[in-house]
Write a structure and sequence with these properties.
The protein is mainly alpha-helical. It has 3 helices and 2 strands. It has a two-stranded antiparallel sheet. Helix 2 packs across helix 3. The protein is globular, with a radius of gyration of 11 Å.
Length: 73
């Protein structure tokens, strides 16, 4: 499972999680989590809310959103 998939799964189970909480829970560096969240936000898979939390968005696509492939990983 890719880092992107792991982060999306975590956000579905923990809506509003901060990058720090995601990094701590998944054992990934905060820098990597922030970079992945920026890519996922640009692609429309996550939304950032005031206060710094993130939510996974329901996205209709040919592939299940939990199987998203993000370039550069």
């Amino acid at each position: 499972m890719s880092v992107e998939q792991r982060i999306l799964r975590y956000l579905r189970e923990n809506p509003g999680a901060t990058p720090r909480a995601i990094a701590d829970a998944l054992g990934i560096s905060l820098t990597q989590v922030r970079a992945v969240l920026n890519r996922l936000r640009d692609l429309g898979y996550v939304t950032r809310v005031p206060g710094g939390g993130y939510y996974a968005r329901a996205v209709q696509s040919p592939a299940n959103a939990s199987e998203v492939e993000v370039e550069g990983t």
